[in-house]
Each structure stands twice: as structure tokens, then as C-alpha cells.
Write a structure and sequence with these properties.
By secondary structure, the chain is mainly alpha-helical. Helix content is 74%, strand content 0%. The chain has one domain.
């Protein structure tokens, strides 16, 4: 077996720093573009194409959507997005630390936990938002044709799984940090 070159750990840290700088930019782009896209979507999309946001088929919307319905439903669906963006902000802060070479810190672990918490909250909020959106979109339908539709998709389940995975990884990293600090005290 050949020995590793001495510069490899430094090269690895430089790669982490470089990729982290790109991830900071990606997080910034998401925080700007996603809200703009949401507003554009609710302002310009046809009613039949908006129906799935409320777990409804396009045919469920029997009355013309009023402007206030679009804006109210858009505001409701903005809540899970806002929670997700709070998580992205935590990820951005974590990546900013990585970009400075601060990889295994208590702050980074806390930010990963907060990221996971916000992502999980966004997934749960999306389920509630879908139900509220179904009511808003069908409010002007004739009696008997209004809907309250609750839906849990594989996207919600996967997002919760992903959040739990990140939370657990942050917890493991935190335990490793605690053990390393304890070992340093004994030396």
C-alpha cells in the first residue's frame, strides 16, 4: 500500500471550503427565487392547475376563482415555504462556517439540528396547508361541492425521513464532539 501524501487533509479541507462557498450561494438563490416563484405561480396559473395544491382534481373547482382566493391560498402555501426557507437559512449559516474552515463546531451541529427541525415543520405544515387550501379553493362552489381534502404524499414522508436523518447525524456529530472534548481534558 502506498502512503497518503501529507497534503491530502489540507486538500480535503480546501475542497470542503470551496463547495461550501458554492452552497452558501445556492442557499441565497433559493431564499430569493422560491418566494418569487410562489407568488408568480399563484398569480398566473390556471385554476385547474392550482387544484392539486389543495389535494383536489382540477374538476373540483366549479366556480371561478376570485383574486382573494388565489392570494389567500398562496399565503397559506407560503407558510410551509417560509419554514423551509428558515431551514435553508440555517444550512446557509452552517455552510458559511464550513467555508471558513470551521467544520466540527457546536454551532454547526446546532445549525444542522435547526435545519432538520425547520424541514420537518415545513413537511407537517404542508399537510395542513393543503387541507386549508382545498377549502379556500372550493369556497365558492355550490353547496355540496365544497371540499376539505387532506393528503399525505410520499414527498411528505420522505421529507420527514430526511429531516430525521439529518437530525440524527447532527446528534452523532455532537456526541463525537463531546467525546473529543472529554478526551482532550484527560490528556
Amino acid at each position: 500500500m502506498s502512503e497518503r501524501p501529507v497534503s491530502q487533509p489540507l486538500d480535503h479541507l480546501q475542497r470542503i471550503r470551496r463547495i461550501s462557498r458554492l452552497m452558501v450561494l445556492a442557499c441565497t438563490a433559493l431564499m430569493v427565487l422560491l418566494p418569487v416563484t410562489l407568488v408568480y405561480f399563484w398569480a398566473t396559473t390556471s385554476a385547474a392547475e392550482l387544484a392539486p395544491q389543495g389535494n383536489l382534481p382540477g374538476s373540483a373547482l366549479q366556480a371561478t376563482l376570485m383574486a382573494w382566493q388565489r392570494w389567500a391560498a398562496g399565503a397559506v402555501t407560503a407558510m410551509p415555504l417560509a419554514m423551509l426557507l428558515m431551514g435553508v437559512r440555517q444550512a446557509q449559516r452552517c455552510f458559511a462556517q464550513f467555508a471558513q474552515g470551521q467544520v466540527f463546531t457546536a454551532q454547526a451541529t446546532d445549525q444542522l439540528r435547526r435545519f432538520a427541525g425547520w424541514v420537518a415543520a415545513a413537511a407537517l405544515a404542508a399537510i395542513v396547508a393543503g387541507a386549508i387550501t382545498s377549502v379556500l379553493l372550493t369556497l365558492h362552489n355550490p353547496p355540496g361541492a365544497r371540499h376539505l381534502a387532506v393528503g399525505i404524499s410520499s414527498n411528505h414522508v420522505f421529507t420527514m425521513f430526511f429531516a430525521a436523518l439529518v437530525w440524527l447525524m447532527a446528534d452523532v456529530i455532537g456526541q463525537g464532539q463531546a467525546l473529543a472534548e472529554e478526551n482532550e481534558r484527560f490528556v
